[in-house]
Amino acid sequence: MGCETAILVVSYGTSQVSALPPLTAIVREVGEAFPGLPLMHAFTSRFLRDTLARRGGPDIPHVSDALAQLAQQGVSQVLLQPTHLLPGGEYHGMVEQLKPCTAQLTVALGDPLLRTPQDVERVAAALPACLPPLPPDGGGLFLGHGTSHQAHALYAQLEQALHRQGHTSLYVGTLKDGLSPQQMVHRLRLNPHLTRLYVHPLTVGCGVHALRDMLEGDESWCGQLRRAGFAVEGIPRGLGDCPAIRRLFVSHAQQAAGRFLPIYRNEAHL
Fold it and tell me: Shortest CA distance to 159 belongs to which of 191, 112, 207?
């Protein structure tokens, strides 16, 4: 390859070809921020990468295989940017997978989308652009998976930031370790003007889990909110579909690159 440094964008993965575009859009824009450097995309889930390939999707390598391949090609430094939402269990599992490779490679690790208080504020500022313009009686619910990891607190912090910034009709919920749909209905009804609701996955991609549990069918969150009397529209897109969110991932990669690629550091994005 003849290049000392490479860019590796790492996702947990997806088994659905239709759920790939938000991830590949992030990969593309991270790569465009570092012109001339080799770019790869990898998954941390072997099961998902194998399933995706069987279904006719691209053959995306597992992260350990991608790092081994880069080392064999003469790369000594890797800028690794995850597409994870927050530093929960999957993110820390990825970090563990990197450890065997550090004897051969120097790895600069970018942050997930949400980590610091500054990240929370920036994501809160970007989220309204993921929704259509809200009518006077409209609001939005950003719905994440949730995690048993302590990073779960970032979901509540994100809603608080949305409200501080004036987006008082936007809410954040989770499928696990958060309010139930019935409890969320109670919170939404505290806003007397709210009758219409957009539900958007607070996930980087929009795979089968988001469609089934958040958006589609009578027992999904959308279905239960409709039964409670709200006019609900589910938005089957991931955060990676939003240009403002993708720019935040690029900013994290640029910040990490400053460790050994100072020429690429761009403070205007930070």
Answer: 191
The band of 177, judged by pLDDT with boundaries at 50, 70 and 90, is confident
Query: Where does the pLDDT of residue 207 fall: very low under 50, low under 70, confident under 90, or very high at 90 and above?
Result: confident
Query: Does 80 share its domain with 186?
Result: no
Sign of CA dihedral 145, 140, 167, 110: positive
Give the whole-angstrom CA distance, residue 250 versus residue 7: 12
Q: What is the CATH number of the domain that holds 209?
A: 3.40.50.1400
Domain that holds residue 175: 117-240
Cβ within 8 Å of residue 41, ≥6 positions away: 8, 9, 10, 11, 23, 24, 27, 60
Same domain, 84 and 137: no
89/77 Cα distance (integer angstroms): 25
User: Percent of the chain, pLDDT > 90?
Assistant: 76
From CA 9, how far away is CA 22, in angstroms rounded? 13
Q: State whether 22 and 93 are in the same domain.
A: yes
Task: Identify the band that residue 208 occupies on the pLDDT scale cut at 50, 70 and 90.
Answer: confident
Is pLDDT above 60 for 266? no
- Conformational region of residue 221, where left means phi above 0, alpha means psi within -120 to 50, and beta covers everything else: alpha
Please name the residue that has the structure tokens 């469609």.
211
Same domain, 182 and 228: yes
CA atoms of 217 and 222, how far apart (whole Å): 8
Q: Write the pLDDT tens digit of every residue in 114-154.
A: 999 999 999 999 999 999 999 999 999 999 998 888 889 99
Whether residues 160 and 131 fall in one domain: yes
Same domain? For 16 and 89 the reply is yes
